[in-house]
Amino acid sequence: MNKTPDFERLMRIDLPEPEVSDESPPLRLVQWSTEHFADRKMVLTTAFGMEGCALIDMYARFTSSLTVSYIDTGFFFPETIRLIDRIIGKYPHLVVVQ
Fold first, then answer.
1. pLDDT digits over 14-63, tens only?
2. Residue 98's pLDDT is what?
3. First CA to last CA across the chain, in angstroms?
4. In this predicted structure, what is the pLDDT of residue 51?
5. What span, in angstroms and rounded, lies between the C-alpha atoms of 29 and 17?
6. How far from 97 is each of 6, 17, 48, 51, CA to CA, in Å?
7. R_g over Cα of the chain
8. Which contacts (CB < 8 Å, 24+ apart) does range 65-68 have?
9. What whole-number distance in Å separates Cα of residue 11 and Cα of residue 41?
10. Count helices and strands in the chain by DSSP H and E runs
């Protein structure tokens, strides 16, 4: 008897045919992911670079249940700390955790 390990079973997700492609604009991909995974907890990890901030902004448009996670290495510049505070202020519906 060959059992599928739990992690493999959990990773199998039955999704409908994709409504997006590799040519879809990023905002559409974000929208699609929030629609298709609305029943799951979504976590975005970031180091608050340009790309991470852009993703936070895009996801904030489509969901209020996103958790933004980061690791404080103790080496953030003061500007990065201020940026984190600005993001928390601009997107109060998102949860930002260390």
1. 656 667 888 999 999 999 999 989 999 999 999 999 999 999 999 999 99
2. 93
3. 43
4. 96
5. 14
6. 28, 34, 13, 18
7. 17
8. 65/41, 66/42, 66/94, 66/95, 67/41, 67/42, 67/43, 67/94, 67/95, 67/96, 67/97, 68/43, 68/44, 68/94, 68/95, 68/96, 68/97
9. 15
10. 4, 3
Q: Which residue has the tokens 């990065």?
A: 80
Amino acid residing at 28: R
d(C-alpha 68, C-alpha 31), whole Å:
17
Q: Which tokens belong to 51?
A: 């790309």
**Identity of residue 3:** K
